[in-house]
Amino acid sequence: MKNKYDFLFAGVGGQGTILASDILSEVGMRSGYDVKKSEVHGMSQRGGAVESHVRWGEKVYSPLIEEGNTDFLLAFEMLEAARWPHFTAANTVALINRHQIFPPSVNLGQAKYPEENEIESILAGAGAKVVWVDGAAKALELGNAALGGVVLIGALSTYLDEPVEVWEKTIVELVPAKFKELNVQAFRAGRELMQK
Amino acid sequence: MKKIMSGNEALAYGAYLAGIKVGAGYPGTPSTEVLENYSRYPGAYAEWSPNEKVAMDVGIGAALGGKRAMVTMKHVGLNVAADSLFTVSYTGTNGALIIINSDDPSMHSSQNEQDNRHYARASKVVMLEPADSEEAKRFVKVAVEISETFDTPVILRTTTRLSHSRCIVALEDEPADIVVEPAAYERNASKYVMVPMNARQRRLVVEERLKKLAEYAETTPINFIEPGGGDIGVIAAGVSYQYAKEVFPEATFLKLGMVYPLPKQLIRDLAGRVKQVVVVEELDPFIEEHVRLLGIPVKGREVFPGIAEFSQGRVRKHAAAAGLVPKVADPPAVQTPQLPVRPPMLCPGCAHRPVFYALQRLRVAVMGDIGCYTLGAAPPLGSMHSCICMGASIGNVHGVDRAKVKDRTAAVIGDSTFFHSGIAPLINLISNGGNSTVIVVDNRITAMTGHQPHPGTGWTLMGKEVPNVSIDALARAVGFKKVDVINPYDFKLVLDTIRDHTSSDEPSLIVSQYPCVLNIREKKPAPTVDLDACNECGTCLRIGCSPMTKVDGGVAIDPALCIGCGFCASVCPQSAIKVPS
Ligand code: SF4
Ligand code: SF4
C-alpha cells in the first residue's frame, strides 16, 4: 500500500464529478486507507466550474490537497483541466476527458477556448503527464452522456493496485439500481481505453 | 462499521444518536443537508420554516416543552434569528437547544464573510466547533449534555469546508428509543417571560453560567493538549486544526473543541510548555485576542491572513515566511494562462431567464434578492443591479423610488425569499403609499439550496400535504390592486406585462410562475438550428443559455445539456431555431 494518493477532480456543474469522487473515496476506505474528500457546492453547481479533492493516506488531516502535490488530476472537461497547473508536479498523471463546454464569454467571442496542444503544454509545463480519454464519446456510444465520469474512473483504476472487483462492487452499490449495468460497462470501457 | 459522511450528514446522525426530537431551519448553503438528512431518521420531526427567526422560535418552543431540539441555518441566517437568540440566552432552555450554524469563509455561496464566533460572545452562549465529520457526530451529543446541564443554548459552528467535506465516521449502536411522553408544560414566568424586571434577574444568571462554563472549558475532553516536540505550541479549532497538523507535524497542540468560552488555564499550560504560541484560525483573531488578554505573547494575524479560508498550502506559505517552519522550495514556474472564466449561470431552460432578458431589453433598474435568480446579474443577462440580503429587494426598490430616479425600476424576488422576509416590506410599500413594481419569480420551490419546500409548495419536509399559500392572493389581501400572474415562456406577455407595470403609477406585483425545471425534471427534445436561415446576429447567445455554442456559420445546441424549453427559438429574429413538434 502506497502511503498517500491525492486526486483532484475538475469539471463543470452537472457533469457527475461528485458521484465519481464518491466512488473513489469509497474504494479508498474499502482498501484500508483513511480518506478525506472535499467538494465545492453552492452556486458553482449551476454550470460553473466545480472541483473536488479526494485524499487517501494512512492518516489524512486536511480535506484539501496541497498545491504541487496532486498524484492524479481527473478532468471532466478540457478547459477545466488547464486551470490546475499549480496543483500538478512532475509525477502527476492528468487524465483528461475529451469534452468541451463553452463558457458564455467564448460564445460571445470575448475569449478563446484553448486548443488541445495548449492545454497539454500548460500542464506539461508543471511536469504533468497528460493522458487523453475519449470518455464523452464512449459515454454516447453506451447511450448516456452522463457516463463519461465513470469511464474516467475506469481509466484511473488501471494506475492503481486495488482489485477490479472492489471498484465494480463499489460502483454497483453507489449508483441507482437501474443504471448498475451501464455504469459497470462504462467502467470497463474506461479500463479498455487504457489497454490500447 | 464505518461510513464516509459529510460534516452535515454526520451532524444529522449525531442529532439522531443524541435523541433530538425536533429540528427546524431555513435552507442555506452550506448548512442545508443537516436537516434534510435528520428528517429521514426514525422518530425525528423536522420542518423548514419560512425564515431563520421562525425556525429559532420553533426550536425554543420545543426546548421549553422539555424536548431536545435543533435549529439549523447558515451564518447570515443567524443575523435574522439573532433577536430570539439573545433572549433565549437569558431564559435558558428547559430541554436542550442546539443551534447548528455554518460559516462560509471565502464566500463560496454567500454575500459576506462574517465570523459568527462573535455571536457566541455577544449573546453569551457556548460555542463548539468540530474539526471533521467524526467530531461533528460526537459533538452533537456533547452539545446536548452542555445545554441540559447548564440550561443554555449551544451553538455548533461549522464552516463550508467542514460541512461539505467527507471523512470516515464510526457507526454506533442505534439509540434506545426515547419515548416522548407528553409532560405538563413548565410554567415559570419569572424565568421565561422577559419583561425588564425578570430579565434583570436572568442577566445575573447568565453571568454566573458563563463562569461555570469557563471552568468546564478547562476540563472537557473536547479541549485537549496533544504533546509534541519542538518549540512551537499551536492553538487551533475546527478545520484549521487539520491544516495546522500538516504544517506543524512536530508541534505541541492545544486543540479546542469549544471556542467560547475559552479555557485560560489550558492556554497557560500550553504556553508554559513551549517557546512560541501560534494561533491558526480563519477570519477574525478571536482566539488570538483571548490569548493576548492573558498576557501571553502570540503569533496569529500578523502571520496568517484574515480574509478567506485557509488550506495547508496557505498556512505553510505564511508560516514559512514568518520563519516558523522551513521555507518550502518554490514550485517550478508554471505558465499562468489567460483562460476564459466559467461563472455560474442560470440553468439551461430556467424559467427566470425570459424575465431577466425582458428586464434587460426594457432597461429596468432591478433591485434583486438572494436565490438562484441572483445569477440574473451575471453576463450576458446582467439585469440585476443590487443584492443585499434575504428579502431586501422590496424595501430597496421602495427606497430607490422615494429617491426619484429616472429609470424604470422593479424588485425581483424569489418565492422562497418572498415567504422568508418579503411580506413585511410588501406591506410597508402599501402602507407608506409606495408605487413600486415587485416581480416574484416563482419557481414553486427553494431552488438555490436544492429544492426544499416552502409555504407556497403545498407539502412539508416530512412529505405531508398542507395548504399552499398563494402569493397573488396575499398581495391582493394586503392592498395591491394591480396583480398579474404570467407564464414566463410566453415572452411577448412577459415584455408587455413588465412594460405595463413599470410604467404604471400604482404599486403593482407580477408573479412569474413556472416550476423549476430541475425539480420537475422536465426535458423535451432540443431545438435544431437551421444554419441557412441563421444570419449570425448572435441574439440567441445573449440569453446566456449554456447548451448554445457559437459554431462556424451559426449556432449549435448541445442536446446533452438542453432541456428543450424553446425560449431561444422565441428570441431568434430569423426564426432559424426550430422547436421539434
Ligand atoms: S431550448 Fe434553448 S433556451 Fe431552452 S434550454 Fe435549450 S438551448 Fe436553452
Ligand atoms: S438569434 Fe437566430 S439568427 Fe441570430 S444567431 Fe441565433 S439562431 Fe442565428
What does this protein look like?
- The complex is a heterodimer of chains A (196) and B (581).
- Chain A is α/β, with parallel strands linked by helices and 196 residues long.
- In chain A, 38% of the residues lie in helices and 19% in strands.
- Chain A has eight helices and six strands; from the N terminus they run E-H-E-E-E-H-E-H-H-E-H-H-H-H.
- In chain A, helix 1 crosses helix 7, helix 5 packs across helix 6 and helix 7 runs antiparallel to helix 8.
- The mean pLDDT of chain A is 92.
- Chain B is of the alpha/beta class and 581 residues long.
- In chain B, the strands form six sheets. In chain B, strands 3-2-4-5-7-6-12 form a seven-stranded mixed sheet, sandwiched between helices.
- Strand 2 of chain A pairs antiparallel with strand 8 of chain B, so a sheet runs across the interface.
- Bound molecules: iron/sulfur cluster (2 copies).
- One iron/sulfur cluster binds next to helix 21 of chain B.
Q: Which residues of chain B form runs of ≥5 with pLDDT under 50?
A: none
Question: Largest sheet of chain A, if any?
Answer: 6 strands, mixed
Indicate the low-confidence ranges of chain A by residue numbers.
none
Biggest sheet strand line-up of chain A: 2-3-1-4-5-6
Task: Name the largest protein-protein interface in this structure.
Answer: A-B, 59 and 54 residues
How would a crystallographer describe the biggest sheet of chain B?
A: 7 strands, mixed
Strand order of the largest sheet of chain B: 3-2-4-5-7-6-12
The chain-level structural class of chain A is alpha/beta
